[in-house]
Amino acid sequence: MEDLLERWQLTLGDEYPRGAAGRAFRVDCADGTPAVLKLIHPHRESLQEADALERWDGDGAVRLLARDDDAHAVLLERCEPGTPLSQLPTEDAMDVLVGLLPRLWKDATGFVAIDDEVDYFVEDIETCTDPRLRDAALAYLRDLVPTQGERVLVSQDLHGDNVLAAEREPWLAIDPKPLAAERELSAAPIVRSPELGHSRRQALYRLDRLAELGLDRERMIGWTVLHSVAWSGGADFVPTHMETVAWLL
Predict the structure, then answer these.
(1) Model-level pTM?
(2) Which of 2, 3, 61, 88 could form a disulfide with 173 if both were Cys (CB 3.0 to 4.6 A apart)?
(3) Cβ neighbours of 164 (radius 10 Å)
(4) Can you list the positions of beta strands (E) in the chain?
(5) What are the sequence ranges of the domains in the chain?
(6) What are 58-86's pLDDT values in tens digits?
(7) Is 31 one of the annotated active-site residues of the chain?
(8) For the domain with range 2-77, which CATH number is right: 3.40.50.2020, 3.40.50.1820, 3.30.200.20, 3.40.640.10?
């Protein structure tokens, strides 16, 4: 990290609470601009994080200021005050997301397609200990992937804590886990997001609001089921996600 601080002429500040995807630090650039230095844990889901930020180019998302792919590091615009969208009531948060999502559906050229990730999804889904949920997720995976509509850039992890209050725009998306997939996959992290309210009524409300964007309701349900099971590591790991899956089924 010392090399990055010197090369990018950064003054190091406090570290943000650690997450599963990496470490992030408040920094100040040489001209005083506040920024965030993020050190990304190498993983296939985050390998194209910088590419997604470049493709978004600050349109509804944090700006990418610099990148070092060898060091798995990015320098990002800092969101101030940085309040997560999850602090809003579900209805207000969904107003933001319904307005934000179409701006994030950029051209997906160059991004890994979900079609090429099927084996990984199967492997992850098969760790689920509930045979009903596991079988449903595998069935949706078989049905949805080959019948997709137009592929766009989709952020697989756009939940209530990955959209932050900022100054340049009221709300900006962070931490993309990009894939080239149909738009309906975008529903998965939002519908299952317990940060936006964890109840059957609230999950179905989020589904209804996303349908306002012209998204197919049944395909959104299918993507949410299969993606949530794949990302939850089984019912014992993220029980709230599995509860949402059960409600949708």
Answers:
(1) 0.94
(2) 61
(3) 19
(4) 11-15, 22-28, 34-40, 64-68, 73-77, 151-155, 163-165, 171-173, 178-182
(5) 2-77, 85-248
(6) 999 999 999 999 999 999 999 999 999 99
(7) no
(8) 3.30.200.20
Angle at 189 between CA 239 and CA 220, to 5 degrees: 105
pLDDT at 8: 96
Tell me: pLDDT of 91 over 90: yes
Residue entry with tokens 């697989």: 156
pLDDT over threshold 90, residue 237: no
pLDDT tens for each residue of 9-32: 999 999 998 877 789 999 999 999
| Helical axes 131-144 vs 239-248, angle rounded to 10° | 70
Q: Which CATH architecture has domain 85-248?
A: Alpha-Beta Complex (3.90)
Angle between helical axes of 217-232 and 131-144 (0-180°, round to 10)? 130
Are residues 161 and 130 in contact, defined by beta-carbon separation less than 8 angstroms? no
Using alpha carbons only, what angle is made at residue 244 by residues 242 and 247, rounded to the nearest 5 degrees? 110
* The pLDDT value given to residue 164: 98
The catalytic residue among 59, 157, 161, 208 is 157
31, with CB counted inside 10 A (0-12, 13-18, 19+), is: exposed
- 198 by DSSP, 3-state: which? coil
Query: What is the spatial distance between Cα 182 and Cα 150, in angstroms, rounded to a whole number?
Result: 6
